[in-house]
Amino acid sequence: MSERQAKRLAADPAVRYVERNGVVRTSETWGLDRVDQRDLPLDDSYAAPNDGSGVTAYVVDTGIAFDHPELEGRATSGYDFIDNDSDASDCHGHGTHVAGTIGSKTYGIAKNVDMVAVRVLNCGGSGSWDQVIAAVDWVTENAPEAAVGNMSLGGSRSTSVNDAVAASVEAGVAWAVAAGNDAKDACEVSPASAPGVLTVGASDSEDRRSLWGTKGSNWGECVELFAPGSNVTSITQDGKTAAWNGTSMATPHVAGAVVLVTSAEPGISVADVNALVLDTATTNVISDPMDSPNRLLYVDDLGARDPGAPLASFTSTCSETTPDCTFDASRSSDPDGTISSYAWEFGDGTTGTGVKPSHKYSKNGTYTVKLTVTDNSGKTATTSRRALAGPQPPRASFSVTCQKDVCSFDGSASSDPNDDIVSYAWDFGDGKTAAGVKTGHTYPSGPQSIVYTAKLTVTDSFDNKSTIGKQIRCHGSPYMTFCIPMTF
């Protein structure tokens, strides 16, 4: 009605008041809301640069509830490596929740992406590494050119798993993987430690690294960025919705972001997709990142790049024995012209120019190298990646199991970039030591409970060392001692 009519109606003694009509809308889930804006507070909206059309996302998980109305028929079955058949339906809910964050119509980052379920986790949410490896290989063999993979799962570091994922990346599949929920170094976990993937940590609605009771998001240099992973609402296998926690929930936000980029730029390489996602991320907003790169997923600029802007991309090749590296930016491109300059920052305070520069670092280490390209129109693009100069230190890792007072230690999960670990030194925390990849130890009996810190130090042929410790609690009695490994 008009303003005049409203005034006349308000004058009626039978009318208490007249109020202007308003618009009612649903509020976006906080995770979607967070990743399309740089800063808090949230604005209760989510606007994606595109809908992910033309891209297929492979969800390697517990399966998907294909008939959930939120998926609009866009999710199909790939293969079930639990039952060894073609029906990858979800009887747990985890995979459906993940798929919903990637591409459901209400809760998804990319609302028109096609999804394929590859089941590797059973109704209890567990599986085996051989099933995961087979699934990754299946995705590699069956994926179309525009393909994205999501693995919201993990376990102890596995060379076989990491190799399978690396081969998939090399074949052109872009993977987002979960960092893990044990509040420890993600480099001890697979596939989080696999090369060439986007490893995702979890953040909460106040931009803190997520913590859940005694658990929390894994951290460290293997984490590439954070995404919302606390109290994330998505769909479940029973046709409903639920709010769940974990890096499993953070990862599909990033997988969805990769879908957006791939949809906008068909044929883009995995390295360039990853670089674009990382370079676009919001920096220095996560509190307590615990030695992780301080990046938070940001999608507003993804899939909506200036069509005339160049694309910066490079590879690095470093010696395994000396801190000498060469860089190659020849894959950088410009859609409507030529690249006129290449400017490098080598991460040690020095700079360079040219398409294929070489650089000698003053010492071995990990450096963040940045490339900025400028095209003939003056438009620029920047990307960065790590360069491992010279022999890199090994990474110690071990497992421990105990029966009564006898504990068995296994350091075979330790790794070295050059595959040249030459010694394994054990300190059992009670004054005793041992050597070798695998060993055993009997803890002393006593009348009280004692916590021992067992440590493994691995050394490579360049005398680089790495040490890791785990706690073992031994409960004494007059008759017997029982030891229990403690998780931390």
Automatic annotation (TrEMBL):
Residues 326-384, 408-443 form the PKD domain. CDD domains: Peptidases_S8_PCSK9_ProteinaseK_like (cd04077), PKD (cd00146). GO terms for cellular component: extracellular space. GO terms for biological process: carbohydrate metabolic process; proteolysis. Keywords: Hydrolase, Protease, Serine protease. SMART domains: PKD (SM00089). GO terms for molecular function: serine-type endopeptidase activity. InterPro entries: Ig-like_fold (IPR013783), PCSK9_ProteinaseK-like (IPR034193), Peptidase_S8/S53_dom (IPR000209), Peptidase_S8/S53_dom_sf (IPR036852), Peptidase_S8_Asp-AS (IPR023827), Peptidase_S8_His-AS (IPR022398), Peptidase_S8_Ser-AS (IPR023828), Peptidase_S8_subtilisin-like (IPR050131). This is PKD repeat protein. It comes from Saccharothrix ecbatanensis.
